[in-house]
Design brief:
Strand content: 5-15%
Strand order of the largest sheet: 3-2-1-4
Distance between the termini: 52 Å
Helix content: 55-70%
Number of strands: 6
Structural class: alpha+beta
Largest sheet: 4 strands, antiparallel
Oligomer: single chain
Order of helices and strands: HHHEEEEHHEEHHHHHHHHH
Radius of gyration: 24 Å
């Protein structure tokens, strides 16, 4: 128990400690700028002017952060291509670039806790091995490779004058922040970062296999293949597998989704029960997903009263709201409104939104499953035939 508590404390304290260190570094940088670049302080005279200048630099810092998000995902793309991977999707915020039948298209999707994601199709495994380090390192490396020279130039090249020196420092500091927070193994926003993923993949052959398989499943879902058409045995792990390892947890969740796609809700629930013994060790993202899916299964089985207060949990509510571009969250909210709250109109609105979202979903195989589940919900909520519109 003491080791478990120590591990949990380190998970949550590391980001806090790192934020404090970054704050100290930024303080030192500001001090250096004031001493070395008098033009910076001369431009900040009077409270109004000072506020305007400060807000201008703050806006530049935010813009630099956005640029580094794009550069980070581009780094994954570049180093993935160099490692033999092929393009699958490129997401910034909720906008996803996919390649569908030889044409690039924009879709909408987001994952709470992530600002972007570059998914690629891995090369074939050779005796259980394939390149994964550079693909995962690429994003943070690009942040550092572009950020550190900018930081050096802004601090130590006198010919670069105000305000361009400060702009370079802000761009460099953003690159340093994104690079280190992705390469130092951490859990941020409930998700393991690139450094943590590399550490897991290097240690665990099963995790490497599951990471490769998950990327392949994403490729198939993007092509419109349904989970129920895949081999369930590929997702079933040996009894001694550590189900708390993120890539192993994903396999259990794929088992759950496979049974959902088969409309076998009893087996879908049984899959989630497998994670109960390790629930406290799971990534927060996975914990949220499991809790929501359990509530959904209770709702459609008629056990609405048993989970009446569950969604009052603030972190879970926040997760649902921030996942507004996740089609599974629309399905969950439709069940909550229609089966728990008895809000037929609200459920009808969510049903319509889900259908629109399905057309924009980057993984059409998953979207088709969610539409099927929503149609089943429609019948439960209204008692109508599945081909009739849900009442407004």
């Amino acid at each position: 128990m003491p080791d478990k508590n120590k591990r949990k404390r380190s998970i949550y304290l590391l980001p806090l400690i790192f934020a404090v260190i970054i704050g100290m570094v930024m303080g030192i940088l500001i001090s250096l700028l004031e001493n070395r670049f008098p033009g910076a302080s001369e431009g900040i005279q009077g409270s109004l002017v000072g506020f305007i200048v400060f807000m201008g630099f703050f806006a530049i810092l935010l813009l630099a952060g956005l640029v580094h998000i794009v550069l980070h995902e581009a780094g994954h793309l570049l180093f993935g291509l160099l490692s033999g991977y092929r393009f699958l999707s490129f997401r910034i915020g909720s906008f996803v670039l996919i390649r569908d039948q030889g044409q690039f298209k924009i879709r909408r999707f987001n994952i709470p806790g992530t600002a972007g994601q570059c998914l690629m199709i891995p090369p074939p495994m050779n005796d259980g091995n394939y390149p994964f380090v550079l693909y995962n390192l690429g994003g943070g490396l690009v942040n550092l490779l572009l950020g550190l020279p900018a930081l050096f130039a802004g601090l130590f090249i006198p010919s670069i004058q105000y305000p361009f020196n400060i702009i370079l420092v802000l761009f460099g500091a953003a690159g340093l922040f994104f690079g280190l927070t992705n390469l130092i193994p951490l859990r941020i926003g409930g998700i393991a970062n690139d450094g943590a993923n590399i550490r897991i993949l290097k240690k665990d052959p099963l995790a490497r296999r599951n990471f490769h398989l998950h990327l392949e499943v994403n490729r198939l879902l993007g092509q419109g293949v349904r989970l129920k058409d895949l081999d369930l045995q590929d997702f079933i792990l040996e009894e001694d597998a550590d189900l708390a390892s993120p890539f192993n947890t994903t396999m259990v969740l794929l088992q759950h989704q496979w049974h959902l796609d088969k409309m076998d809700f009893k087996e879908a629930a049984s899959s989630l029960v497998l994670l109960d013994p390790v629930f406290d060790r799971l990534l927060p993202l996975h914990q949220f997903e499991i809790r929501l899916e359990k509530i959904f299964l209770d709702l459609i089985s008629g056990n609405s009263d048993s989970i009446a207060g569950e969604l009052l949990d603030k972190p879970l509510m926040t997760y649902v709201r921030t996942g507004r571009r996740m089609i599974s969250k629309k399905r969950f909210l439709m069940a909550w409104e229609g089966l728990h709250k008895g809000n037929i109109q609200g459920a009808g609105r969510l049903y319509a939104e889900l259908l629109l979202m399905a057309d924009q979903h980057p993984l059409q195989g998953e979207a088709e499953m969610e539409v099927m589940l929503a149609d089943h919900l429609k019948g439960l909520i209204t008692g109508a035939a599945l081909d009739e519109p849900l009442s407004d």
